[in-house]
Amino acid sequence: MITVDKENAVLSPICEMNVNMFWGGIIGEVLARCGVKYVVSSPGSRSVPLTFGCAANKKLKTIPVIDERSAGFFALGLAKRTGRPVALICSSGTAAANFYSAIIEARMTRVPLVVLTADRPPELRECHSGQTIDQVKMYSNYPLFYKELAVPEADFDFFYYLRQMVTYACERSLFPQKGPVHLNVSFRNPYPEVDDGFASFIKEFDIEDFFSGMVSLEGMSGVNRQSDFSLISSKFQGIDRGLIVVGTVQPKDPKSFSMSVGRLAKSLGWPVLAEGLSPIRNYANEVPGLITRYDAILRNCEAAESLRPEKIIQIGDLPTSKVLRAWLKRMKPETWVFESSADNVDALHGNTHFLRFDVEDFICDAKVSATSMYFGTWRNLEEQADKLIADRLGREMGFFEGKISWLLSESLPEETPIFIATSMPVRDIEFFWQKGNRRIQPYFNRGANGIDGIVSTALGIAHENKPAVLLVGDLTLLHDTNGLLIKNYFKGSLTIILINNNGGRIFENLPVAQHGTIFEEFIATPQDIDFKKFSDYHGIEYHRPDSWEIFNSLIEKLPDEGIRMIEIITDGKFDVAFRKNLFKTVSEKIII
Ligand SMILES: Cc1ncc(C[n+]2csc(CCOP(=O)(O)OP(=O)(O)O)c2C)c(N)n1
Fold first, then answer.
1. For residue 510, how far is its CA from the centre of ligand 1 (angstroms)?
2. What is the mean pLDDT of each run of 10 residues along the chain (592 residues)?
3. Rounded to 10 degrees, what is the CA torsion of 166, 172, 178, 180?
4. Closest residue (by CA) to atom 21 of ligand 1?
5. What does DSSP say about strands 272-274 and 290-291: parallel, antiparallel, or unpaired?
6. Which residue lies with its CA nearest to atom 17 of ligand 1?
7. Considering only CA atoms, which residue is closest to atom 22 of ligand 1?
8. Is the overall model pTM greater than 0.85, yes or no?
9. Alpha-carbon gap, residue 82 to 99, rounded angstroms
10. Which domains, from first to last, does the chain contain?
């Protein structure tokens, strides 16, 4: 019998009403016991047992979000931050289709999501029964695991099967690599009506016994390859012209990650080229020979030639910089890539060897004897380039959008989570983010580089977290304004730094930008939005600083709660020219 003691009941009484509600209740309880904490649910009828099963479970925090596309990205943000699987629930039909882009992003950036789509039973499919589409494997190869669950029956074997299948789905969202999994869950009658046949079954059901022996998936670690470590280390021993390249990585524990990279760099004596989208630049003291201005340095032909590397250790996906990628492609170094999943992350198709574990698990026994000339050259060029960039940006009083990234790195409070949107923001962070020791934690959606769901993902990261920041362009913000509908359930603080250059100005860098009005209308697509009115409509605090001093004063301290917008109006054409001139000057002025 289930509810002996109402206070400590395993399942809420609402889950005892019929077999479907019980099915949903067991799913909610299994999710909780597997370590799921958050469930994001969009409203619908077919999904009632799933939503009730989770919402009535005190161990789960279930959050309603009406637009499934925003829900998917909000869950993605929560899962990125917590490192735990987040469950997503929706009704049948096109509701499920709206999760698609978040599932793709989760697959490509290895974020654990457990997607539960409600469906009609097989006999109501392919007959226009209403809100019924083909949901079987509807997300193609993107989920790491897919299962069409059996239609619920009041039978013990069905519930043992359910417990095992949901546990397995949670496990597959974490091991051997993290990512989305999809369970399609059919119900005959989703509503909570009393069910006579079910009454005798439930009397026999011993819920404590049913769940005894279930182990949380939390804290389970990956495979230990210690036996191979000496062999791997020997490949790097005695190599002077070696480089560690840290690309776009979002480790759960940025400090431990940065310390591990630092340890590896020290034992090899190699410089570390670190993306702005990795946490490394914010733990500069841990990493000797930290190089941030590689894009500017490698534009200098003489430097690019003299810095030819023999071996590379790559951690995470490659940095965004086209200049760095082209240089690596030309130099063809032997490359060792830390990548714990089975994915191929070598976009350059080089001479690559994969190390299928995390850098944090690697113990390197190679030893460097003295600082190499190669290391010294990189460090010297870094100092020069960094100073030239700082001098130029420090002097600039106009609203060049790259200066926002530069200022954020020195002005945001320590440990601030910052979500950086696709398009120019990710590039400016790579170009201009300064090294320091503020332990700021960058997040991003670079799996598929979509501009969709960005507001929702940032809200997911900020929910029940430290005050967070979103750096975003105007079109990307407008693409996901529905994300702001979560406002009433959002607990936390998000400062949206809106770079408003009226349109997709990244495209100003392409030859197509010469095509005047056609370019403007169909590629740049300016929307001419008054963001003050927009903020008023959404009940968001609004600021439009007219100097960098005021901007700084707004970001040095972040509010404890609520959503706030800081709009900076910039000029896309001016920005493109500014970047070009700056990189030209820096690459010409550095001396080898
Ligand atoms: C879902 C999706 N649609 C379209 C694109 C193509 N795209 C890439 S960047 C961009 C423009 C973004 O404009 P904005 O956010 O204003 O940033 P800016 O380019 O001005 O930095 C577009 C449309 C995409 N990446 N993802």
1. 13
2. 46 84 95 96 93 95 96 98 96 96 97 97 84 92 96 93 92 92 92 74 90 68 58 91 96 95 96 98 97 98 97 95 96 91 84 88 89 96 98 97 98 98 97 98 95 97 98 98 95 98 95 89 94 97 97 98 98 95 97 92
3. -50
4. 424
5. parallel
6. 473
7. 504
8. yes
9. 20
10. 13-212 (3.40.50.970), 229-381 (3.40.50.1220), 396-589 (3.40.50.970)
